[in-house]
Amino acid sequence: MRPVRDRTVLTGSGQPTRCTDLPDRRASCVRGGVVSSRTVTSARTRRRTASDGGTVPGLVRRPLVGWLLAALAVPVLLTAVLIPVKAGSIEDELRAQATTALTDHGINGATVVMDGRDASVLVSTDIDAARIREIVGGVDGVRTVAVATGPGGQAPTTPAPEQQAAGFEIGRTDTAIRVQATVRSELAKDAIKTEVEKVLGPEREYDQRVNVDAANGIEDVGTLSALLHALAIGTGDASVRYDGTTVTLSGAVPDQATKAMVARAAAQAVPGAVIADELQVPVSKPVVSEGCRTFKSRLSEFSRHNRINFLSGTAIVNDASKQSVVRAAELLKTCPTARVEVAGHTDTLGSPATSFPLSEQRAAAVKAELVRLGIPANRILAAGYGQAFPIAPNTTAAGRIANRRAELRALQEN
């Protein structure tokens, strides 16, 4: 049996209570003049009962831990809620300050996007990006600045499909200017006529083939007018056709310089268009000098008055003919492009078998002398004809001397 024992305890309210332990495991307590009794349970019993999941009489659970957890959770929850709001307000504030800074520097219409403290600025293509970085980077709180360019400073959008431009064609001859096109209004049609009259001139007429279609016609005739003036350069029959992407030039122009001018004017009239230059330039014949133009007739005259004869049985020019070879070289120099044939001949004193190689040797000898006198070898063709073409009877000495000769003839290509 447990002995009787007195003790003083503190209750949950903090008031002292006088208790007496009784032998039957009960206690008698006095608090504020009120006597109460309760069953006393040992600490060991309370621990065992609690581990078994039961209820322990007399065990008072304090809410201290719960309040501590709640006190820690509140700041965390407030931080999670307030930080995004704070970040959002910072971005809005920086965006407004950057936009104001740009406006103060005369830059309007820029789009500023903030990602935290990093700024992205979209401006029109005609503004210096370095200046944008300097202005926005000077805003207190902005960390980095990225600059993108685009038309009008607006955020890039997916472009709508472009409507195919209506095509047209302009033709030019020495007597008329033809315009074949479809426009949207009578006003545009009249504007084309006005431009044609500026380049028409008194010798040509306007061949008008312009229709009006309010839905599908050309709205702006500026491109047509510019190409009309480009085609007006030079003379001859020519045309220009435009299909919205390609400018095709065809026909004839007098020279390469005019062709280049027309192509350049077309490129300036339609910037960015593909220029298909099919203009043709006539092949011009080289200018023929007076010396070359009269060379054939002067060579014929030379041959009638100047003989080139040889000693019998040899390829040696006789003394009387040496000056004729010199005069022949001087004649060839008057037309640097002329080519001639030196034809060698013989009399009939020898056999045909020996006469033919002798005639070739005589032609080669005259060619060699002309080359020595300054005539290019590629302008002279040497050929032998033997006894085949006598110019005098071989029955006399004078006739045989005349047949032992070399003649110069202009080649057909001159």
Automatic annotation (TrEMBL):
The OmpA-like domain, residue ranges: 297-414
Note whether Transmembrane helix occurs among the keywords: yes
Query: What's a single GO CC term here?
Result: membrane
Instruction: Tell me the CDD domains matching this sequence.
Output: OmpA_C-like (cd07185)
- Stored InterPro entries: Bact_OuterMem_StrucFunc (IPR050330), OmpA-like (IPR006665), OmpA-like_sf (IPR036737)
Q: Which UniProt keywords apply?
A: Membrane, Transmembrane, Transmembrane helix
Chain positions covered by the region annotation Disordered: 1-24
The record's listing under SUPFAM superfamilies reads: OmpA-like
List all membrane-crossing ranges.
Answer: 64-85
Q: Does the keyword Zinc apply?
A: no
Q: Which Pfam families match?
A: OmpA
PANTHER family for the chain? LIPOPROTEIN YIAD-RELATED, STATOR ELEMENT OF FLAGELLAR MOTOR COMPLEX
- From the Swiss-Prot or TrEMBL record, give the protein name: OmpA family protein
